[in-house]
Amino acid sequence: MVILVSTMAVGSLIMFPLKYYFERPRPLKVFGDRNVNIFFEKLYNNSFPSGHTQIVLSVCTFMFIMVRKYWYWYIILALGTSFERIYAGHHFPFDVMVGAVIGMISAYVTVTLFRKYSKIKI
């Protein structure tokens, strides 16, 4: 559990400074209310990179490394969340791709470092 939380935290520490550095507008602000699917709240600012995608890909990559038995569910969850972030009008595709890469790299690096330096057996 500690490793999973660490994985998400490492990704968030990379992602949040990027989000506030680039301050990229969301699709709703660029295209307007009538041209974007809106399911919940209207979001306008700080689109790049996608935080939800980063978290989900961190968890899915972590689970893929640790428990490969259900790998197909991790891929379905990751792709579904990524698609939803674009379809719901919260992110552009590039935002989601960068969030996914940050999530996968943070999970891989965190698990690798825990295996190498931690006394916890994983």
Textual characterization of the structure:
- By secondary structure, this protein is mainly α.
- It is 69% helix and 0% strand.
- Helix 3 (51-66) packs antiparallel against helix 4 and helix 3 (51-66) packs across helix 5.
- It is elongated, with a radius of gyration of 16 Å.
- 33% of the residues are buried.
Key attributes of the depicted protein:
122 residues, mainly alpha, elongated
Task: Summarize this entry quickly.
The protein has 122 residues and is mostly helical.
Radius of gyration, in angstroms, nearest whole number? 16 Å
Overall 3D geometry? elongated
Question: What is the helix content?
Answer: 55-70%
User: Would you report the number of β strands?
Assistant: 0
Number of helices: 5
Order of helices and strands: HHHHH
Structural class: mainly alpha
Low-confidence stretches: none
The overall pLDDT, averaged over residues, is 83
Q: Major beta sheet, specifics?
A: none
N-C termini distance: 11 Å
Strand-residue fraction? under 5%
Blueprint of the fold:
Blueprint: H1 2-22, H2 27-31, H3 51-66, H4 71-87, H5 93-117
Helix pairs in contact: 1-3, 1-5, 3-4, 3-5, 4-5
